[in-house]
Design goal:
The protein is an alpha/beta fold. 11% of the residues lie in helices and 21% in strands. The strands form 5 sheets. It has an 8-stranded mixed β-sheet with strand order 9-8-7-4-3-13-14-15, with no helix packed on it.
């Protein structure tokens, strides 16, 4: 008893983990297996399934009704006898069935003939999730079901499954989470050969009404079939399904636009995961890439930008948007790797500088070149707020060889031996000043050009 109680508690805990998104129970419906409670007798000849079709792999469990190759056909044009189904539903003997049938499809009984005239018979090429309906106690009883590939159905003008041909049961779109289903194989519907959970697909309506549906012959995959909507095969046109289709350039398009372009090209839109991306999500890449060639109905995997605010294409960086010039009254940015020059401009080169900086003397932004060191000097009319250990417009501090403020002997005789501070002739009557020429330790190419980009930026 103690063990049973522990197991019961454990089961309750496990079930509680999925209370927010429980599994949807789905009843398997195999091709050729009679339905237990059909609207019409399976032997009445309304339709016939094909039991030799293997489910095709899909790339995304939710596909539009106009996806190329989603449905199949064959040279046999009478997989669904729509005229016979219409006779059954309009027979007064079957009035209650007709009323329940019409209610499922949101039409009046008087509108049944017109509705049937717009349906098109096809064969499933994928194991397909639908909301099926049995007929019990004069009512349509809904249940979720997985129809095996090869079952004959009627689809509406937007490619949605509408009727299961063999029994006349009305069908509606599957409303559950395709990634959280529990398929039950029972009542003679044994697990069929080729069944794979990843090959299950649900269908959503195409965004526009179709004029024709592009099918693949389930017996001859190289043979494509164009079937006008509302016809049963007598007006079919064929095409070469193996003829290469070129993958278009889709980067930057929305997911809805990319899907539309692929459908127009005869290809299917694939995606990773259970839920389809939002229609407005931007495509960043395709697999295979643009220009590749594929057969009709093959999938092109679409990668979309993930997360809020993500974009495709080139981003913007500091080189495309120059920073605003510093205020004229403010102090220049302190140096990072070199001491300031006489103008107070940073001399660091350890990181990429901004695209422009302001010259204190001119008030104009001056371009910075990251490929060469910045100039070592600027015009001297703006004193530095802090003393420079090498050059300054104010009297320099004492060094190892003191410098006097008085003029040296006349320049005609050769200069006396060091100090080094007298290696160049200073101006008389004051401390040495810095000219506009760069120091000998800096390359001449670092001197800013007078016609550079700084002339195009207003201070």
């Amino acid at each position: 008893m103690h063990r049973i109680a522990v197991l019961a508690v454990f089961a309750v805990l496990l079930s509680g983990c999925d209370q927010g998104n429980p599994l949807t129970v789905v009843k398997a419906v195999a091709a050729g297996v009679p339905t237990l409670a059909p609207f019409f007798d399976e032997g009445s000849g309304i339709g016939k399934d094909t039991t030799t079709v293997r489910s095709q792999a899909v790339r995304g469990s939710l596909q539009q009704g106009d996806t190329p190759g989603l449905y199949g056909g064959s040279k046999q044009p009478t997989i669904c006898d729509v005229a016979k189904l219409e006779r059954f539903l309009t027979d007064p003997v079957n009035h209650k069935k007709a009323q329940a049938w019409a209610d499922v499809l949101n039409i009046d009984t008087d509108g049944i003939p017109e509705y049937l005239d717009r349906l098109t018979p096809v064969l499933l090429r994928h194991d397909t999730l639908v909301k099926n309906h049995d007929y019990k106690k004069e009512k349509a009883v809904p249940y979720n079901s997985l129809l095996q590939a090869g079952i004959a159905i009627l689809v509406d003008e937007q490619g949605l499954p509408a009727v299961k041909c063999s029994c006349g049961n009305p069908l509606r779109p599957f409303e559950g989470d395709t990634g959280r289903i529990s398929v039950q194989f029972e009542d003679g519907n044994k697990k069929w050969a080729g069944y794979e959970r990843k090959s299950v697909v649900a269908v959503k309506p195409a965004p526009r009404k179709l004029e024709r549906i592009a099918l693949v012959d389930v017996h001859e995959p190289a043979r494509g079939i164009e079937r006008p909507v509302g016809t049963s095969g007598e007006k079919d046109a064929t095409f070469n399904a193996k003829k290469p289709r070129v993958v278009p350039e889709l980067a930057g398009a929305t997911f809805a636009q990319a899907r539309r372009e692929l459908i127009d090209a005869g290809l299917a839109a694939g995606y990773a995961g259970q839920g389809a991306p939002p229609d407005g999500a931007r495509v960043t890449a395709t697999d295979p890439p643009a220009g590749s060639e594929l057969a009709f109905g093959q999938y092109v995997m679409l990668t979309v930008a993930g997360g809020k605010g993500s974009t495709s294409g080139g981003g913007t960086g500091p080189t495309t948007t120059p920073p605003p010039p510093p205020p004229s009254s403010g102090s220049p940015t302190p140096p990072t790797s070199k001491p300031p020059s006489s103008s107070g401009k940073p001399g660091g080169t350890s990181s990429a500088p901004p695209s422009a900086s302001a010259s204190p003397s001119s008030g104009k932004p001056k371009p910075r070149e990251s490929s060469s060191p910045p100039p070592s000097s600027t015009p001297p009319d703006s004193p530095s707020p802090s003393p420079s250990p090498q050059k300054s417009s104010s009297p320099p501090p004492p060094t190892s060889a003191p410098v006097t403020s008085s003029a040296p002997p006349p320049p005609q005789p050769p200069p006396p031996p060091p100090p080094p501070s007298t290696s160049s002739a200073p101006t008389t009557g004051g401390p040495p000043t810095v000219t506009s020429q760069p120091a000998a330790s800096e390359p001449a190419s670092s001197e800013p050009a007078t016609g550079g980009p700084s002339a195009t930026v207003a201070a």
